[in-house]
């Protein structure tokens, strides 16, 4: 299964990607996580991306395409993958298609903006492994500590309310048109936001038939 997860920032793509990765035994490729790791390590890509990521803007398409090309060439992607947060613009989707990157389904998790804004204010992210939690909907077992690696949980700089607003505007302007792009190719599936994480996973499984 080669799956793209579409949806606004905070729609639950990362959370569902983690769950679906285990269910389908394919890796998740999150350009956001790759960029944050590169920024932390101070690599050339990280330095290029920093000012964009921190202000809630999109990183230039050529940087993203370079990352994706390198990552998808790795052997663990041979049997499929979940793309979380990429493509994010029509030029990225078009370039990926031109490069011969195959997609079986683009699944959009549909969540209203007001729900997103409320949700993002409670999001906590592990500094070490990037796992995400939510103070109310998905709290960690130990306060401030990651369940998976014990790393410190922090609020992402770009989850600040003003930045979230900007990221939502960017989503509607640049990313939402991808729904029409994949609908034209008969690949688009929609899943409405559900009251909880498990219910959303069930809705996705039913749409994907897995
Ligand atoms: P995310 O973790 O997916 O919310 O991504 C965090 C930030 O990384 C975004 O706000 C962008 O600045 C950058 N980013 C991640 N993926 C992409 C992409 N495909 N295209 C452009 N920028 C991206």
Largest sheet: 5 strands, parallel
Structural class call reads alpha/beta
Q: Termini separation (Å)?
A: 10 Å
Count the beta strands.
Answer: 8
Shape: globular
Uncertain runs are none
Strand order of the main beta sheet, please? 2-3-1-4-8
- Written as H for each helix and E for each strand, in order along the chain, the element string is EHEHHHEHEHEEEHHEH
> What's the total helix number?
9
Query: Radius of gyration over alpha carbons?
Result: 16 Å
Range of helix content: 40-55%
Features:
globular, single chain, alpha/beta, 3-stranded antiparallel sheet, binds adenosine monophosphate, 210 residues
Describe the structure.
This protein has 210 residues and is an alpha/beta fold. The protein has nine helices and eight strands. The strands form two sheets. It has a five-stranded parallel sheet with strand order 2-3-1-4-8, sandwiched between helices. A three-stranded antiparallel sheet has the order 6-5-7, with no helix packed on it. β5 and β6 (132-134) form a beta hairpin. It starts with a strand and ends with a helix. The model has no long low-confidence stretch (mean pLDDT 95).
Would you summarize the structure shown here?
The chain is of the alpha/beta class and 210 residues long. 47% of the residues lie in helices and 15% in strands.
Write the layout of secondary structure elements.
Elements: E1 2-6, H1 13-24, E2 28-30, H2 31-41, H3 44-54, H4 61-72, E3 81-84, H5 90-98, E4 105-110, H6 113-120, E5 123-126, E6 132-134, E7 153-154, H7 161-175, H8 177-184, E8 188-192, H9 197-208
Parallel strand pairs: 1-3, 1-4, 2-3, 4-8
Antiparallel strand pairs: 5-6, 5-7
The structure holds adenosine monophosphate (AMP).
The site of adenosine monophosphate has 17 residues, from helix 2 and helix 3.
């Amino acid at each position: 299964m080669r799956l793209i997860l579409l949806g606004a920032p905070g729609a639950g793509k990362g959370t569902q990607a983690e769950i679906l990765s285990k269910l389908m035994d394919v890796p998740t490729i999150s350009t956001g996580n790759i960029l944050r790791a590169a920024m932390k390590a101070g690599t050339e890509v990280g330095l290029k991306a920093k000012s964009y990521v921190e202000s809630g803007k999109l990183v230039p398409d050529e940087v993203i395409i370079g990352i994706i090309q390198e990552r998808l060439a790795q052997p663990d992607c041979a049997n499929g993958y979940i793309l979380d947060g990429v493509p994010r613009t029509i030029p990225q989707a078009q370039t990926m298609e031109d490069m011969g990157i195959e997609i079986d389904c683009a699944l959009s998790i549909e969540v209203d903006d007001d729900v997103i804004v409320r949700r993002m204010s409670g999001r906590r992210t592990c500094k070490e492994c990037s796992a995400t939690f939510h103070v109310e909907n998905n709290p960690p077992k130990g306060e401030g500590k990651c369940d998976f690696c014990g790393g410190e949980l922090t609020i992402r700089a770009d989850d600040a309310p003003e930045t979230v607003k900007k990221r939502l505007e960017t989503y509607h302007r640049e990313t939402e048109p991808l729904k029409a792009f994949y609908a034209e190719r008969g690949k688009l599936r929609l899943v409405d936001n559900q009251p909880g994480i498990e219910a959303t996973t069930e809705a996705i499984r039913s749409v994907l038939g897995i």
